[in-house]
Write a structure and sequence with these properties.
With 302 residues, the chain is of the alpha/beta class. It has a single domain (65-293), classed as 3-Layer(aba) Sandwich (Rossmann fold), CATH 3.40.50.300. It is built from 13 helices and six strands. The radius of gyration is 22 Å and the shape is globular.
């Protein structure tokens, strides 16, 4: 009795149309994915076949990119480089989920995640950047900032957590500080995870329904929809005044979380000249329709 693969191979030999041959090749690939351990899990969970295949393709691609991230981390460590990756964006934009995929298989001794709570009374009396400076990368280390000093550019003025004078002072100082960090050899990447208003609303509702994610909803999150336009104004001011040639803003379309994760990882891999990159078995060029440098005319969050 012939297996389904043998039947497909027989058809491949018999058909003459290149289009049909490509379809058969794609079908063969999909079936191979579904026959794996993960594929069977997807089918048992009663997912539709097309959705199961998409999930399997995503997970396969993610693992291949994570292999490259391990190579990058080893290069950073061996060469005593310092890498700082900032993740900013609206509430529920997928920053935390992206960081989780970045660090999933990295050596925990060679990276840190900086997700600072609200400042203490002592910290509020310090130089604003002081508490963030404690978390700058050491030689051989990558630090992922789940939000950063850019709280003062958007969240704090929108919700009244800083004065106008403090805001203006920050906007003048931050380009100079980032220039000093980059000039000292730190590799700095600044991501803005971008979503539209409808996507944010849907994700908030999903969090409310899911008891495992409900903790993510903060009082600030609950006002995010109401403050949408005000956040937009401050966000555009931030881009205008802090997007520089040495520390550009990289916009990630995060309305599709899985694409955002894959393409932001690709951007980092393509941006840093780590050893072994040429041996990668996966495309390392990010999709410009998902990830691009900020351009004044092109970035819109509806």
């Amino acid at each position: 009795m012939k297996t389904i693969f043998e039947k497909i191979e027989k058809l491949e030999k018999e058909v003459k149309s290149d289009d049909v041959k490509e379809e058969l090749k794609s079908l063969k690939k999909d079936i191979a994915l579904l026959r794996t351990k993960e594929g069977i899990k997807q089918l048992v969970s009663k997912k539709k076949i097309r959705k199961a295949i998409k999930t399997l393709e995503y997970e396969k691609e993610l693992v291949q990119l994570q292999v490259e991230l391990i190579k990058l981390q080893n290069w950073v460590y061996d060469n005593k480089k310092r890498v700082m990756i900032i993740f900013e964006g609206r509430d529920a934009a997928g920053k935390g989920g992206a960081i989780k995929r970045f660090i999933q298989y990295l050596n925990p001794r060679k990276f840190r995640v900086a997700a600072l709570p609200k400042p203490t009374e002592v910290e509020m009396g310090q130089f604003y950047f002081q508490r963030y400076f404690k978390h700058l990368p050491d030689p051989g280390e990558i630090v992922f900032f789940d939000r950063s000093w850019y709280n003062r550019a958007v969240v704090e003025p929108v919700f009244g957590f800083c004065t106008e004078e403090q805001y203006e002072k920050f906007m003048l100082e931050v380009p100079e500080i980032e220039h000093s960090l980059v000039g000292d050899g730190i590799i700095l990447i600044k991501f803005w995870f971008s979503i539209n208003k409808e996507t944010q609303e849907k994700r908030f509702k999903d969090r409310l329904r899911n008891p495992l994610k409900r903790w993510k909803l903060s009082p600030v999150d609950k006002k995010a929809q109401e403050m949408w336009d005000k956040v937009t104004w401050y966000k555009e001011e931030m881009f205008s005044k802090t997007h520089t040639s040495y520390a550009p803003w990289i916009i990630v379309d995060s309305n599709n979380k899985k694409k955002a994760r894959l393409e932001s990882i690709r951007y980092v891999l393509s941006h840093i000249p780590y050893e072994g990159k040429e041996e990668a078995k996966i495309n390392l060029h990010h999709d410009p329709s998902v990830v691009e440098r900020y351009h004044r005319q092109s970035h819109v969050e509806s």
